[in-house]
Amino acid sequence: YSILDIDGAADVVNNLLDKLGTAVGWGVNRETPERIAIATYIEDIKNSDYDSLLKAALISQAKKTIKEYCNQKDVVGFAINELREGANPQKVDDDWIVLFMDQARLISDEVFQSIWGKILAEECNDNNSIPKKLLYTLAQMDREDAETFTTLCSLAVKVDDEYEPVIWCHRLDEYKKWGITFDKIISLIALGLIEADLGPIASGYVIESESNPIKVHYFDSEYEMEKETKTVRVGNVLFTKSGQALHRAISVEKKEGFFEEYCLSMWRKDCLLYTSDAADE
C-alpha cells in the first residue's frame, strides 16, 4: 500500500487524513519522509556552523522524529486498508486521536503496527467502539501477551453478537498445548483484557440470550441448545470491554477439535443434567 500518493483516494481515506491533520497536525507528503529530511533539514544541519556535538545532537533528534513519523505512517497505512465504505473518521474524538497517534509513533514492529492500524480503522468504522483504556493496554503489551491473547480469541465462541473464550479452570493443564497457562492468563488480567474466576470452587460464567433456541457459533460450526435453555456456560474467563474491542480488531484461526472436545461435550452434559432434573420434577 502507499498513502503518500493520495490522488483519487476514496472520500473515507481523505476524511481520515483530514481528521489526523486537524486533531494532531499530522499529514502526508508525496516525497518519503526520509528523502525530505536528508535533502533538507539534516543536510542543513551538516552544512551549518554549529559545533560537532550540537550537530550530532540535532541530527539524532531529526532521525528520531523521522522514525516516529514513519511508524505513524505505517500504522495509518494499515488502517486505510481496513476502512469500510461507511466509516466516519470525522466523528472520532480528537482526544482519542491525539492519544492514539502519540502511542503509534513508538510502534515499529510490523505485527503490532497491523494491530494498531486495525484499532484505528475499527474506531473510524464504528465510532466510540474502542475505549481509550485499550490504547494504554496495547502500549504495555509485549509479543508474548499478543500471542496469548490471539490464541485466547481462537478459543472463543459467539452467542448472538458476543464473543467469549471457553476456558475451563479444571482442565487448564490441557490448554498448555495451545500455549495457554495460568501465568499467561494472570498477565492478561493485569492488562485489563480479561477477567477470570479461577478459584477451587469456581462456578464459571454464563452468557444470557433471549434467542430461542440459543445458537452458538465457532467459526463455521454451529450448535443449537435446548429450547428451554436461556444461558450458555463459557467457562472461567471473560473478555472485558477492552478485550472485546481488541478481539474485533485481530484475525484468528480455529483450533481443530476444540469445539467438539471442550464445548460440545460440556454443553451436552449440561443438557443431560437439565433433562434429568426436569424429569425428577
Textual characterization of the structure:
The longest helix is centred in the N-terminal third of the chain and has 31 residues. The chain starts with 10 loop residues before the first helix and ends with a helix. With 281 residues, the protein is α+β, with helices and mostly antiparallel strands. Helix 4 packs across helix 6, helix 5 runs parallel beside helix 7 and helix 6 packs across helix 10. Strands 2-1-5-6 form a four-stranded antiparallel sheet. 27% of the residues are buried.
Task: Detail the topology: elements first, then pairings.
Blueprint: H1 11-24, H2 33-39, H3 41-46, H4 52-82, H5 94-104, H6 110-125, H7 132-140, H8 143-154, E1 156-159, E2 162-165, H9 182-191, E3 194-196, E4 205-208, E5 215-218, E6 221-224, E7 231-235, E8 237-239, H10 241-249, H11 258-280
Antiparallel strand pairs: 1-2, 1-5, 3-8, 4-7, 5-6
Task: Give a short synopsis of this structure.
The chain is 53% helix and 11% strand.
Write a concise keyword list for the protein shown above:
281 residues, alpha+beta, two-stranded antiparallel sheet, 11% strand, elongated, disordered N terminus, disordered C terminus
| Helix/strand order | HHHHHHHHEEHEEEEEEHH
Number of helices: 11
Distance between the termini: 65 Å
Describe the main β-sheet briefly. Answer: 4 strands, antiparallel
Strand order of the largest sheet: 2-1-5-6
Catalogue the unreliable spans.
1-8, 273-281
Helicity level: 40-55%
Overall radius of gyration: 24 Å
Shape field = elongated
